[in-house]
Design brief:
The protein has 353 residues and is an alpha/beta fold. 52% of the residues lie in helices and 11% in strands. The structure holds guanosine-5'-diphosphate-alpha-D-mannose (GDD).
Length: 353
């Protein structure tokens, strides 16, 4: 069993007391604590238990990282089945036998302690944590088709840890493991009752959540970066400028409203597509214009245009916002839709997870 720790001194005694009470056959399991530089005396607490059976401590000196810690533990493990569990007792040790049973009997490769299947539950978590956790699992669902992809309590065959991507990091090693299996793993969800910790505090930060989101996007086949988003914004602004200028010119030259609107949209879309193709997404090697891609670009653009109209109508007619003000949130929403469309649909970057 691998237990990653970062300032969990108050949880070591109760955790090991409850694990000892499980009455697992002598020598059938070891507990490897992987500590990432705790400064509250966690390593010393673990050392007090080192003589009481198969309890080991690994002290990492690298930058703290949950996934890397778990992989370090898996590398040092001697058993064939690995269980990962939080140190804070939010995962009931008593549910360990039920979790490992499907791996031990050979029927499955990965068993996930799941809060979101019938029989599973979450107790004591503030509402915003419940929502965040649900949202995280829901976003991952299309990728790995399980209900609780953000669970930190799971068991798997040890050799699978070698399949996890080099660049994997952050909180969600389970997702990495499932993605590395490319849909071929036999996965089962075992209901668990998750209880919020009593001692210490969660280490989940905004930066962990952002890393998770970015990782989800990468695993889904797209990449998001600040530099790319900036270039996209510049290309978009230039497109808006061309659109407005041409629209004015066509109107003043006597073209009808619909013609001016459609023509300026197509010219601006072509300019913006070329800029995004060459500059924002660096696809120089593939030639200048690719029709199927341009078609997808127009589809995204048209969808965004419709959405912009909807947002505008809602803000202006529903919320009585002045149109000159309403255009800004409308443009923002449109830009977000176009950017996601480009990343995942028009220019998805295929890469190894
Ligand atoms: N070694 C190491 N390095 N351990 C860490 C690090 C790190 O950088 N960050 C956190 N941990 C340890 C904690 O000490 C604890 O044992 C466990 O990882 C979970 O961390 P928490 O910060 O307590 O997580 P949580 O309670 O908010 O729960 C969330 O993350 C869990 C971890 O996977 C939830 O999303 C849970 O669903 C999930 O199980």
């Amino acid at each position: 069993m691998i237990v990653p720790t970062l300032n969990e001194a108050g949880n070591i005694d109760p955790l090991l007391t409850r694990l000892s009470a499980l009455d697992l056959p002598e020598g059938s399991f070891e507990v490897i604590f992987v500590d990432d530089g705790s400064c509250d005396g966690t390593p010393e607490k673990v050392r007090e238990w080192e003589n009481c059976g198969n309890i080991r401590l690994i002290e990492r000196r690298e930058k703290p990282d949950l996934t890397r810690s778990i992989l370090a533990g898996a590398g040092a493990a001697r058993g064939d089945v690995i269980v990962v569990m939080d140190a804070d007792l939010s995962h009931p040790p008593e549910q360990l036998p039920a979790l490992i049973a499907p791996i031990l009997d050979g029927s499955h490769d990965v068993a996930v302690g799941s809060r979101y299947v019938p029989g599973g539950s979450t107790e004591g978590w503030p509402l915003h944590r419940q929502w965040l956790s649900r949202l995280g699992s829901w976003l991952a669902r299309p990728l790995c088709d399980i209900n609780d992809a953000t669970s930190g309590f799971f068991a798997f065959r040890r050799e699978l840890s070698g399949t996890v991507a080099e660049r994997a990091g952050g909180y969600k090693i389970l997702l990495e493991l499932l993605m590395a299996g490319q849909g071929k793993l036999r996965v089962v969800e075992v209901p668990i009752c998750f209880r919020d910790r009593i001692h210490g505090a969660s280490k989940l930060s905004f930066s962990h959540q952002w890393t998770y989101l970015r990782r989800l996007m990468t695993l889904a086949g797209g990449t998001v970066s600040v530099g790319r988003a900036g270039r996209f914004a510049a290309a978009g602004l230039f497109g808006v400028f061309v659109d407005a200028l041409l629209f004015q010119w066509l109107l003043s030259s006597g073209a009808g409203l619909a013609l001016a609107h459609i023509l300026s949209f197509f010219v601006a879309a072509s300019v913006s597509y070329s800029l995004n193709f060459k500059w924002s997404f660096h696809l120089n090697h593939e030639g200048y214009l690719r029709w199927p891609q341009f078609g997808r670009f127009l589809t995204v653009g048209l969808f965004a245009l419709l959405m912009r109209g909807g947002v505008l109508a809602l803000l202006v007619h529903g919320w009585h916002m002045p149109p000159l003000l309403a255009i800004f949130p409308a443009i923002g929403a449109t830009a977000a839709v176009i950017y996601m469309g480009l990343v995942f649909y028009v220019f998805p970057v295929k890469q190894n997870p």
